[in-house]
Design goal:
Length: 135
């Protein structure tokens, strides 16, 4: 897994890792992120934690049509998402609510995704996800 050091490296990684000829950078990013991402572990202030019993099915599924399904603490959420390439983040907008969650992309490859919860700066929390089969 490679950390992202600049906006340019982020865009190049999305483009080169997935080699999608004839598509824009935004489309390349969309393809690379549109997976079923399964919670592997979390890191809070430098301490790693395996998922607790109620978190074992937690995941984030990003679909190409910009819809998402998120299981968080065993609770299912749905909504729409967008990729902000310039800020290297995913923005989730929840259906039936004004709730919005911003997730900073810290690292990505074909099998792993590390997200930092932007709103959770006091906890300095990161979520480690692995690619799974889209459901």
């Amino acid at each position: 897994m490679r950390p992202l050091v600049s906006k340019l490296s982020f865009l190049l990684l999305l483009t080169l890792s997935f080699g999608i000829a004839g598509q824009s950078l935004a489309q390349s990013g969309l393809v690379s992120l549109t997976k079923n991402w399964i919670l592997e572990k979390t890191n809070v202030k430098g301490t790693y934690f395996a998922p607790e019993e109620h978190e074992k099915g937690d995941k984030l599924t990003l679909y190409p049509n910009h819809h998402f399904v998120r299981i968080d603490g065993g609770v299912r959420y749905i909504g729409v998402w967008k990729l902000d390439c310039e800020q290297e983040r995913i923005i989730l907008k929840y259906c039936g609510s004004d709730k919005e969650k911003t997730l900073l992309i810290e690292a990505i490859d074909e099998e792993r995704l590390v997200l930092k919860l932007e709103e959770d700066w006091k906890m300095d929390m990161r979520i480690y996800l692995r690619a799974g089969v889209t459901s």
